[in-house]
Amino acid sequence: MMETLNFGNRILDLRRFPLREKEPLRAWDAADEHILKNLLEDAPAPGSRVLIFNDSFGALAVALNHLQPQVWSDSFLAEQGLAHNLDNNGWDAGSVPFIPADRTPSGPFDLVLLKLPKSLAFWEDTLLRLRPLLAPGARIISGSMIKHSPARAYELLEDILGPTKTSQGWKKSRLAFSTFEPGRTLPENLPDETYALDDGTEFCSGPNVFSRDHLDLGTRFLLKNIPATDQPLQVLDIGSGNGVLALALAKQCAQAKVLGVDESYQAIACSRQNAKNLELGEERVKFKIASGLQEIPAASFDLAICNPPFHQAQVVGDQIAWGMFHQSRRILKKGGKLLIVGNRHLGYHVKLQRLFGNCRVVDSDRKFVVLESWVTGLVE
Ligand SMILES: C[S@@+](CC[C@H](N)C(=O)[O-])C[C@H]1O[C@@H](n2cnc3c(N)ncnc32)[C@H](O)[C@@H]1O
Predict the structure, then answer these.
(1) CA–CA distance, 88 with 80 (Å, rounded to integer)
(2) Distance between Cα 308 and ligand 1 center (Å)
(3) 342 pocket-lining for ligand 1 (C-beta < 6 Å)
(4) Rounded distance between C-alpha atoms, residue 265 and residue 118, angstroms
(5) Ligand 1 atom at minimal distance to the Cα of residue 264
(6) What is the pLDDT of residues 217-244, one digit of tens each?
């Protein structure tokens, strides 16, 4: 979408990531505009150290580049969007430091701008980790779209940071202004959660990791259908989360080499920890931050497995899943297979049939279906 964001006397050209032709969605929302409007009305003190949390595609950081902000986020897509949008608007792509959410920035910060993430656990963890980073009297502004703002998110601001006032709604968004109260006794962060498979294998997950405290039902259904073989398969787990599928497969296929990719830094950190706990070394299983499969050589895998995402942040849709299926065709060898799980109603079989020219139902129950497609010829 070719809309531009106006900030003061600047016009910013911003894109979402992954880049798509004819993108129907904007790279920012009204909550970003609301935050920027507030900063125009009440300019930050000169020399303020600025931290921006969960900036979707860099809209805030690009607009506020003159304040030399730092961005803290769990998303590799956000990191790529930030670099692209800085460059696209005449700044050096690396001019805003990006701190992944499995690490902590160095404070103190005088101005903190927070965009509410989808996961309340991630929100709680971030607020706890933020406390030691705040300068005395720090200005803390949280922004979100009202329809994505549960009451609990504001309670957490009160409980963790201090007294919080909310603004009037503006273009269906709301801001919250918190006054930091030092001296409260609170944990440093939210501990990881752990669940076990039926065979007792344990998996831990950080606050922003998919299905962190229980085995997802779709994952459970796909686990029932992954191969157990002595063949030396090269396997790719697309959107590997805490690594449960990749690691379970590596455990039951002793000769397989498995790569898991995910766009969440916390997911990659947890999956590496889970591999270590299971004593599966890097020669068997690797995990890599990636926003898709662009960097993976063509025709290099025998099998790709995927429990696809059905949203990107708060935006629900199957475009990410569709992109994953599409890209998997290129990285599979001739005869290589894509094995996926999905809710029956999503109709993934239609897409797979169109992409691969074939699609087989491997298993199904009332809610889920496991589908398999295979590469019959060279992919252009
Ligand atoms: C439904 S979860 C599945 C996680 C794990 N495989 C499981 O079954 O528990 C989908 C995963 O895809 C990841 N993801 C979303 N968009 C992605 C992208 N563009 N590239 C790579 N991973 C992505 C999410 O972070 C999430 O961990």
Answers:
(1) 12
(2) 6
(3) no
(4) 16
(5) 25
(6) 999 999 999 999 999 999 999 999 999 9
- Give, using CA atoms, the residue closest to atom 18 of ligand 1: 291
Boundaries of every domain in the chain: 4-179, 193-374
Give 47-80 pLDDT, tens digit per residue: 999 999 999 999 999 999 999 999 999 999 999 9
DSSP β-ladder status, 301-306 and 332-343: parallel
Ligand 1 touching residue 327 (CB < 6 A): no
Q: Which CATH number is correct for 193-374, 3.20.20.10, 3.40.50.150, 3.60.110.10, 3.40.50.970?
A: 3.40.50.150
238 CA → ligand 1 middle, Å: 7
